Amino acid sequence: MKPAVVLVSGGLDSATALAICAHEGFEAHALSFDYGQRHRIELDAARRVAASLGARNHRVATIDLRIFGGSALTGDVAVPKNRETKSANEIPITYVPARNTIFLSYALAWCEVLGAADIFIGANAIDYSGYPDCRPEFISAFEHLAGVATKAGVEGTKFRIHAPLIAMSKAEIIRKGTELGVDFSLTHSCYDPTAEGLACGECDSCRLRLAGFRDAGVTDPIRYAP
Fold first, then answer.
1. Could you tell me the pTM of the whole model?
2. Pairwise CA distance, residues 93 & 78, whole Å
C-alpha cells in the first residue's frame, strides 16, 4: 500500500476524504492541527474519525495562529450566525489567513519523511464558506509548488494533492461518506460549540451541514443546542 497523508479536521468533509483515501488503497497517515482554534473540540472528533477509518497513525501538530489573529476562529471576534446571503467575492471573518497553505506545507514535510507522494484534503468549492484556499486553482498551484520546493520534488517525485470533494455538493459528500461507511456521529463541524460540546446550529458551518443532510435525505446524527 502506498502511503498518503490526509488532513483530518474532525469535520464531515475530511472524514469523507479519509474514507476515499482508504477506499483507493492508500495507507492513510492522518494529520490534524491544534492551531489555537476556538472549536478545539474538533481535535477529539479528528481522533475518533482517524481511528474509526483505520488510519495507520494520527499526529496532531501544534502551532498557534492566535499570535496573528485575523479570524473569528483564532481571535476575540464573534462568529457570524444565521447569515442569509453572501456575495461571490465575500470572504467571511471565519477565514483563517493562509490556513490551508500552512496545513498542506506540514503535510508535504511529512510526505518527504514517509516517502509519500500523495496528500488528501477535504477542500470543497461548491457548498462552502467562500474561502480562497478551498478552490481548484489553489490546489493546482500548491501541487506545482510541492514539485519545486522539496528535495523529493527536484529528485523526480511527482506530488499529487487529492481534493476528491472539490466539486461535490454537501449532500453528495454525505452520500459518498455514507456509502464508504463514515460514521458521521463521530464528526464535528460547528465553529462555535457550547461548553457542553453541542453544535450551535447557526454558524455557516452548521447551516451548510444541516442543509447537506436535509438535501441528502439523511438524518444528522450529532446533537445541536436547543
1. 0.95
2. 9
